[in-house]
Amino acid sequence: MSLETAAMCAADMEAVAALWRETEGIGDVPSDPAFRAFLLRNGEFCRVATENGALVGALLASFDGFRGYFYRLAVRKTARRHGVAARMVEEATEALRAAGADRINLHLFDTNVTAR
Predict the structure, then answer these.
(1) What's this model's pTM, rounded to 2 decimal places?
(2) How far apart are CA 83 and CA 94, in angstroms?
(3) What burial letters (b/e) apply to 84-93, b meaning 16+ CB within 10 Å?
(4) Alpha carbon distances (Å) from 16 to 52, 91, 93
(5) Can you list the pairs that 88-94 forms with residues at least 24 positions away whose Cβ atoms lie under 8 Å?
(6) 21, 26, 94, 91: which is closest to 55 by C-alpha?
């Protein structure tokens, strides 16, 4: 697997929303204006993963000035168990720590058996 990762940006929104829609346990996809506003404030903490130019993973993350937060971690079924999620989490964690976060909270639906 030739995996590339990057900070999420507005150009990624459509592909990321499509991945979330096809991933069980993610919940509703935010509206375009809400998603765009979130990325403007937190894009440096959010990650996308691609393989051969195709999106295979996405992690939405934020920082409130004290703590970091992880939301909506999704990896395409065909790319699971290849370290995609681990790499995105590691990179987001590094970015949050560099910004001053000393703790990161993970939000998870209790019904998301796969994630638990």
Answers:
(1) 0.90
(2) 16
(3) bbebbbebbb
(4) 16, 18, 20
(5) 88/5, 88/47, 88/48, 88/49, 88/57, 88/58, 88/59, 89/59, 91/5, 91/47, 92/45, 92/46, 92/47, 92/59, 92/61, 92/68, 93/68
(6) 21
As beta bridge partners, residue 68 has 63, 104
SS3 assignment, position 2: coil
For 68-106, the pLDDT digits (tens) are 999 889 999 999 999 999 999 999 999 999 999 999 998
pLDDT digits (tens, 9 = 90+) for 21-62: 998 877 788 888 999 999 999 999 999 999 999 999 999 999
Q: Provide the Cα torsion 31, 34, 36, 37; round to 10°.
A: 180
Contact 53, 97 (CB under 8 A): no
